[in-house]
Amino acid sequence: MQRSKHLILFSGIALTVLLGSQLGSYLVNSRIPLGESVEWSALIHFTHIRNMGGVFGMFQGHGWIFGAFSVALIAGLVFYLARGKQVQPYEFICFGFIAGGGLSNILDRLIYGSVVDFINVQGIPFWHYIFNTADVMVHVGLWPMLYLSLFSTPSAQA
């Protein structure tokens, strides 16, 4: 019974992240011409670019590989959450953010033929990457889970 509640929580987080990230992609795609930039603040610009590759723009033109790999990872993740023997409650939450972000990037590839990236952080030396809200959500799930997995005691995780 508890696993069912956790799976509903996971699904709710993943769906919320997916919808929010897709809204961001839609708004940027429909309001900012490709290659153009809008200054939101001195720190953040919205710059509409397309990533036809993978993480950090690697393997441009081979985005389908990352899409296929992402589908396989998310399927494995759902199987783990549904069937894993010792899945911790925090994993359902963290994986919800990760799955929602991953699904949004997959959907971008299906709808637009590439991932719509637009968050352009200014003023960081040697940083020239542009990313999207889905990427942020993957990190929102990944870093707490990594920390909790490494530094939590087994009794604190139950």
Give structural attributes.
single chain, about 160 residues, alpha+beta, four-stranded antiparallel β-sheet
Q: In brief, what are we looking at here?
A:
With 158 residues, this protein is α+β, with helices and mostly antiparallel strands.
Question: What's the topology here?
Answer:
Layout: H1 2-31, E1 37-39, E2 44-51, H2 63-83, H3 89-112, E3 115-121, E4 130-131, H4 133-151, H5 154-157
Antiparallel strand pairs: 1-2, 2-3, 3-4
Helix pairs in contact: 1-3, 2-3, 3-4
Provide structural commentary.
This protein has 158 residues and is α+β, with helices and mostly antiparallel strands. It has one domain. The protein is built from five helices and four strands, in the order H-E-E-H-H-E-E-H-H. The chain has a four-stranded antiparallel β-sheet with strand order 1-2-3-4. The mean pLDDT is 88.
